[in-house]
Amino acid sequence: MESNREPGSGSPQRRRVVIVGGGMAGTRLAQQLVMGAGEVPLDVTVIGEEPHPAYNRVLLAEVLAGRYAPEVIALPAPAAGAPAGAGVRRLTGVRVVRVDRPTAEVLCDDGRRVPYDALVLATGSNPVLPPLRGLFEPDARDLHALPDGVHAFRTMDDCLALGAAVRPGTRAVVIGGGLLGVSAARALAQRGAQVVLAHQGEHLMERQLDPGASGLLRRHMAALGVEIHTECRVRGLRTRVAGPGGGGRPVRTVQAVELADGYALEAELVVLACGVRPRVGLARAAGLEVAHGIVVDDELRTSDPRVFAIGDCAEHNGIVYGLVGPAHEQADVLAQLLSPTPPLPETRGLRPPAPHRGSAPDPAPQSPEGLNFRYTGTRTLTRLTLTSTSGSLDLAAFGPPPPAPPRNMGTPPPSPPPGLRPGPRSSIAGGAEFSLHGHPHPHPPDAHFNVRLPRPRRLRHPHPRPRRRRHPPHRRHPQHVPQSRGPRRPPPRRHPSRRSRHRRRARPCLGGR
Q1: CA distances from 202 to 176, 180, 305 (A)
Q2: First to last CA, the chain
Q3: What is the pTM for the complete model shown?
Q4: Where do the record's region annotations for Disordered lie (predicted)?
Q5: 287 in Cβ contact with 99 (< 8 Å)
Q6: Is residue 439 classed as helix, strand or coil in its secondary structure?
Q7: Looking at 116-125, 164-173, 181-190, 441-450, which range is the least confident one?
Q8: Would you give the distance in Å from CA 480 to the centre of its chain?
Q9: Cβ(70)–Cβ(156) under 8 Å?
């Protein structure tokens, strides 16, 4: 593989690395790139859609609760402490609309074209807007125009809008009991709002916590004054027209949240925390391989050898993490791969998306020590800290929760309880066969049995009576008249037949025999 040095020149060529997305993953990558710059200088460009500087998204709930100011959670600038020759150019409030892979350029919404030698997609994710009645107008031109009082909880703008709308005593309804929903409900409760949390699942944070830990979290949330409803499906929103708005369209304000069982929760403020979805529109339009997220291999490369993806938008081995820890680890690995020491992969022409996931187009570059930098996955860690007047609660979930057993199965004990004996027709969970014998005997509370008794068989008579054969209606006796046709008519007079002439008439008996 050829290096990126100009022929006949003693000075190396500056490498252009463009990072689309100014969130936590993109900022971490820019910091690692400028700190690891060596003899070969780097031109790092970070294009962020938000007008705010990079901030810690994990602490948005603390800003909403009023504990921190927005500038407190800002991340340090990547250029601080950078060596000479390494610089970072940050474009805020600029949105990338297209990736031109043949010319290796990205096109922004302000008309500028930014060339790249390596492109990193760190576009993050968007909040999921559920299909609720009354959320959008049927004939609305802007499909993202929400009624007044309805907010998502994902960005700094969402946090500032919620903080400006909440007041002590405000009736707020949080839809979704995941990590974002619990954080938003806790922050609103600390601001003095009357919070109701509606969750469709069986328990809170079901993706990170088991039922026991979720019950502990629910009791702590109830101590904060949050009213929690689980296994509750939201059907729609009730809105009213508050007055004329811009462009001649009326302004709608939320009034209540309708549930599927017919109840309505009065609300002045509604928070949509129904999860997130990776932003893959830019990669899909560029022809990259996309599943639930942007498919990457162990080198965090997409189907194009010069395009990489990290953070919430990347899918590695079929997993989209959506957490800060995996995003930072992916940024660290990619910074080693894009460091100036190993040469960047040369363009070998566009190729179609890989037929299967995890395919590496080119061998990974190696460090000077001979180490092979690869991303093999991250063990997820979810942390949540809740404070109240009664005390604080710290939750930490390591890895995915264990799958819950089926409802009709249980953990078999080592031996059957008294009153059960081996039998051929009944079974217990786990493959051991038992049947009930005598009266039922109580078993210890830690043993969960699922005994299936044999189905009783219907007894039959040893000499069954033959069934009377019924003729079809067209072959029945002519005197048969259904009762639905009215009263039965007298039978017609029978004519003497051959059998009646030969039949012997009965003589009358006159006294005695």
Answers
A1: 12, 17, 44
A2: 132
A3: 0.70
A4: 339-373, 388-513
A5: no
A6: coil
A7: 441-450
A8: 69
A9: yes
